[in-house]
Amino acid sequence: MANNALTMLQTRRIIQLLMEGCSLREIHRITGIHRLTVKNYSHRFQSSGQSFSELFVLSDHDLSVLVHPPRTAKSTDERYSVLDNQLQRLSAELAKKGSSHVTKQVLWEEYLQGSPAGYQYSQFCYYLDQYTQQHDATMPQQHQPGYRLQIDFAGDTLCIIDPLTRERIECPVLVCTLPCSSFFYVEPLSSARQEHLIPSLNRALAYLGGVPKNILSDNMKQVVTKASRYEPLFNELMEQWALHYQTNMQATRPRKPKDKPSVEGTVHLAYSQIYARLRHDEFTSLNALKYRVRELLDDANDRPMTDYGKSRRERFMELEQELLLPLPPTDFAYKRQTTAKVKKNYHVVLGEDRCQYSVPHEYIGKLVKLIYDEAVVEVFLDFQRIALHQRIVGRRGIYSTVPTHMPESHRRYHEQQGWTEEDFTSKAATIGPCTKEVVLRILSSKAYVQQSFDACLGILRLQKKYGSNRLEAACGVALQAPSVSYRLVHNILENNRDKAEVVRDNHALMLPLHTNIRGKEVYN
């Protein structure tokens, strides 16, 4: 309305200046309107057969019709009848999404091939836009509180970075929204498979604190077995999930995203309120990413909405919270199972992600059952659980190994690979100060400290064969030598020199004291 009124004011200003005898150049200078536009207006005024004074007193509507006459091409131009028969097809082509990438320019060029004398590009676009606007009207929807939760996956993903390989791991993002209050939930997942989708839906309902009467999704394969406009078929697992929460599954019509416009809009809200604030952050675990997303989600739900003066959380608590059905006592438990044979490396392979999980080495060659969900992997043999692992998320071909599952030799080797200087000195100190001193001298004897680890390990293992007391005594004897080594300590113990030293010391302590023994002062 404001633009239309401004146009009429400008038009009357042009009429007034023409009445005063101003030239087109002067009118352009005074009004700022282009000279060709002023010339066009003047020509239309003269063609009307009315004087400037009569035109000046016309109503805004009559003057608008005079300046902007309605297009009559539909009834008089044969080109329009040819184009009119194609408008439905052209509009549908333009609305297609995917890999076609059709534009108006492409459609116009194809149109001219069949109608060389057809409209030019601007007129073609004008009639195509008119048709699209008339046939693409959106019906306003009234949403009942607590009636329906709309769910969808965002088109863009978030990611985590593998701390070892720096590989970028994509994480699909689930978005859920209650249309009445616009209260929403967002969570990144390790995958869009059912095993991760269903636990995420459990957490979404827990975030709401209740269950809506209906759950509406599009025809995603994780939910819908067979799409239908009137009677879609849901897979058995989703039916069990809906039965557990006493809710009803619904699906949109095929290829009709406007059936769930609220969650489509919420996806864009998630982009601006969550994705944008994560653009400079780097996460090395899915849990860390989820934690940060939850913080930004709470902030977005607590942010005041301009149209209502209240936050989404406040509107949810006022309008919908009391109308939600109560949550069941326990979450829906989603677990899958498979079988695997324990390999010679005492691990079993979980086929979905090719990750390997250890079991006690005594079960090599056994056929075991794996029961797993998104969080844990359990290994059973004859109804007895023999191993429990945290599920490896987002990476393929990774090993999860419990040290107690290894054979003794493997475990010792594994432990040795992780030795540090502090490990050797602390263990030697528990035996005695002489043993600690020997270890310290050996550690400092090599250009690279790692080269002395095997010698230190050998000295500590002598405790198992000879005992702590003998090892400490042998180290005391070894410290009298210019340099110490594992071989020196080992030879002392093997030749019982530590025992001989102890006897000699004890004999010296047992010599009797009497007056016939002369002291050092005699030799002064």
Rounded average pLDDT: 83
What is the CATH superfamily label of the largest domain? Ribonuclease H-like superfamily/Ribonuclease H
| Total domain modules | 5
By DSSP, the count of extended strands is 16
| Cα shape | elongated
Q: Give the fraction of residues assigned to helices.
A: 40-55%
Radius of gyration: 42 Å
The unreliable regions are 1-5, 506-514
Please, how many helices?
22
Assigned CATH architecture of the largest domain: 2-Layer Sandwich
CATH class of the largest domain: Alpha Beta
Structural overview:
The chain is an alpha+beta fold. It has 5 domains: 66 residues; 63 residues; 176 residues, Nucleotidyltransferase, domain 5, CATH 3.30.420; 75 residues, no CATH class; 91 residues, no CATH class. The chain is 46% helix and 14% strand. It has 22 helices and 16 strands. The strands form 5 sheets. The protein has a 5-stranded mixed β-sheet with strand order 5-4-1-6-9, sandwiched between helices. Strands 10-13-14-15 form a 4-stranded antiparallel β-sheet, with no helix packed on it. Strand 14 and strand 15 form a beta hairpin. Helix 1 packs across helix 3. The longest helix has 18 residues. The protein is elongated and about 140 Å long. The chain starts with a helix and ends in a 15-residue tail after the last helix. The N terminus is likely disordered.
Put the structure in a nutshell.
The chain has 524 residues and is of the alpha+beta class. Helix content is 46%, strand content 14%.
